[in-house]
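Working notes for the structural subgroup meeting. M.R. asked for a predicted model of this chain before we commit to crystallization trials. I am recording the input and output together here so anyone reviewing the notebook later can reproduce the run.

Input as submitted:
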Amino acid sequence: MTGKFSKQSSTMVDRIMDDSEEKQHKPAASVKNSLGMEFVLVPAGEIQVGLKGYEDRKMVHKVIVSKPFYLGKYLVTQKEWKNLMGTDPSCFEGDDRPVECVSWYDVQEFIAKLNKKEGNDKYRLPSAAEWEYACRAGTTTQYYFGDNESQLSKYAWYYENAGHKTHAVGLKEPNAWGLYDMHGNVWEWCRDRYHRRYKASQAAISLGTGFGSGLVLHGGSWVNYPGKCKSSYRSSFHPNYGYYSLGFRLFRSV
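Returned structure, recorded in token form:
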């Protein structure tokens, strides 16, 4: 009787330990850092990058996201930028508005300071493929909510509803993975250099080096018409310069 009880108890302990270990290795659905920035878990998977949108003649190709990552729930705000950098370069002032008028190099300085403050090397800009994958959230339509352009006002600040200015983050509807303002408000810097056409053989996330004709921008902004807010649409800008319709959100490794 005692032996049987001991065997059952041992099995139960093993099961509890297995469950505990699984929880320890399973990343949280969302996390916050020391600046109060929120990050949403983006699951591993694959995507046909460039699907449903050929404005820049890029090739459609498969990208494999081999492991999950975190992406900023919101665009980086002016409050977050000021708390770390001590200044605010933005043209449209407001703590909850996205920081803008920041160059790619300005953003790299922000990232370096944030990694130092957090004591890790988890933060960077997303690659263009990571950005599109996160924006789509499993969809294959023009926008993460579908193909109906007339619905865009529910999800984005763009030329027709923004009133020629940025707006506080998180006021529109998010995508299926809980990410806000992936369409509109401000363009978002990515870490890749811009190529007119993707390489057909590309089968994994590009981390891009060098600058070529500029760095990739995604998402569109308050100054753009719907076509440039599509999930697949890419633009580019010189890394030395900021602009009043250009901001960013951060990638954070798990």
